[in-house]
């Protein structure tokens, strides 16, 4: 009897030891796996990180702090790089995030918007032109300065995406599903109306098309916001974990940002509630020919209204555009 109990107890102990050993092996292997993932992520972010000359926007008194859950703003631009010049912004989105209000606002700025282009590092380059030309005249910093002037808000961070490499990012997440509203042909790609799965090449055409869209830049901006949202959704799914090497490769080769890895982790951990409500904003205006060049004209009342809404989102006091109007 005692021998039987002793045998059973011995088997239980051996089973427990085996279970603990198995768990330990899993944890060790898992630890190496996740360390490898973290190491690769850190390496990719290091390659993507391109700081700018300033640490704090002139429109802020101090730098934002994630532990305080300060509202932040991010300028996301898609760059159309060309052989003959430094490129132009093919798309421009201003993202403002307020974790306390649990809101995120995404504003599309039409590429042909006529405004004062500002270069705080070299004011001699200031001029009135299309906002997407700021990048060609002074790179991402002039784009940031010009957007800050146009909306009278600080831009804390930027994300620059190479539009040609954008298709690699879509392919890396396994493509996206959309419900296309307009049949069109662009750059050899034909998309019919209705639900369909897009690979990188088709998604790039879907995000770029504007001339065949009755709403022009506004319609294109809406599709670009949709594509970015779909990529983010796919990137969060478990099915993409096995493809993380492809995703990181696509990101590090096609994205530049002044965000560091610690700042990305801070945003991810402290700003999650802000994605509960996402408002997509559009800029109202009208087309106008000036000196035989077509511009998108935004009146002062519209600019003031947008500025008020975004400054409120960033917990900044209201401020009249009249104070900076002399630069226009």
UniProtKB/TrEMBL annotation:
Keywords: Membrane, Signal-anchor, Transmembrane, Transmembrane helix
InterPro entries, per the entry: LytR/CpsA/Psr_CW_biosynth, LytR_CpsA_psr
Keyword Membrane carried by entry: yes
Position of the signal peptide: none
Parts of the chain that traverse the membrane: 15-35
Gene3D superfamilies: LCP protein (3.40.630.190)
Gene Ontology biological-process entries: cell wall organization
Span of domain Cell envelope-related transcriptional attenuator: 88-236
Keyword Endoplasmic reticulum: no
Pfam family, one: LytR_cpsA_psr
Family annotation (PANTHER family): POLYISOPRENYL-TEICHOIC ACID--PEPTIDOGLYCAN TEICHOIC ACID TRANSFERASE TAGU (PTHR33392)
Family from the record: Belongs to the LytR/CpsA/Psr (LCP) family.
Name of the featured protein: Membrane-bound protein transcriptional regulator LytR
Species this chain originates from: Neobacillus bataviensis LMG 21833
